[in-house]
Recover the amino acids of this structure.
């Protein structure tokens, strides 16, 4: 029965359309949130790395600390609910944008800590060497420290992107028809005997996305390691 249902899904255009529409929404939310999260993460990380002696950045550092603490300390589902039903309750506001903002803000907190840890992992001697050559703090950071830090944070950021893709499945809670909802819709109200086959199909789509992303990350890591040997 399972293989019959599986075959029916892959040979029925109606079912495939439902899955591909769900996959499209999952992709849009994931990419949009990843871009927003990376942008926020870089800014927050750089703010948190400003010297304590810089009094002008005291308030921005405090805001970033509070942001990271709240986002990392509360469930993603709760953050999505607040964004959808409290903050962005504007009539006609696109749900896709709501989800991108919610997931992007959540991802940004984790990316910020990954980037900050990556920059701090670069030996302080690299900064001192740049400064001793007469380079400014900004140039030392952008030309010497950050390029080395990128190599350290790529695996962590890759893991965050993978987690982000899987977390987007909770958008069904606010009525969005993503890949997980597509499996539910195909399993309900159709001629299939159970939800098992459509859920397996959804899982295969997720696995394919995660495998492709993992392969891309490993390829980037190999390229960077090869550049170190030259």
């Amino acid at each position: 029965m399972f293989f019959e249902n599986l075959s029916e899904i892959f040979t029925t255009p109606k079912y495939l359309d439902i899955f591909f529409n769900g996959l499209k929404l999952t992709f849009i939310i994931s990419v949009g949130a990843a871009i927003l999260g990376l942008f926020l993460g870089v800014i927050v990380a750089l703010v948190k790395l400003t010297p304590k002696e810089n009094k002008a950045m005291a308030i921005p550092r405090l805001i970033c600390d509070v942001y990271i603490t709240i986002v990392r300390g509360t469930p993603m589902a709760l953050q999505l609910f607040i964004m959808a039903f409290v903050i962005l309750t504007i009539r006609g506001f696109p749900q896709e944008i709501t989800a991108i903002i919610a997931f992007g803000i959540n991802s940004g907190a984790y990316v910020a800590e990954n980037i900050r840890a990556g920059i701090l992992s670069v030996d302080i001697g690299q900064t001192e060497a740049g400064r001793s050559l007469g380079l400014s703090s900004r140039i030392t950071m952008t030309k010497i420290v950050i390029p080395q830090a990128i190599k350290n944070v790529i695996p962590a950021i890759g893991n965050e992107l993978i987690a982000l893709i899987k977390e987007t499945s909770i958008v069904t809670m606010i009525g969005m028809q993503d890949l997980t909802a597509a499996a539910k819709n195909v399993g309900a109200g159709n001629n299939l005997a159970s939800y098992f086959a459509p859920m397996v199909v959804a899982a295969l789509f997720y696995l394919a996305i995660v495998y492709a992303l993992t392969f891309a990350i490993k390829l980037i890591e190999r390229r960077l390691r090869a550049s170190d040997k030259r």
About this structure: Residues 2-229 form a domain with the MetI-like fold fold (CATH 1.10.3720.10). The chain has one domain: 2-229. The longest helix spans residues 13-48. The two ends are 57 Å apart (CA to CA).
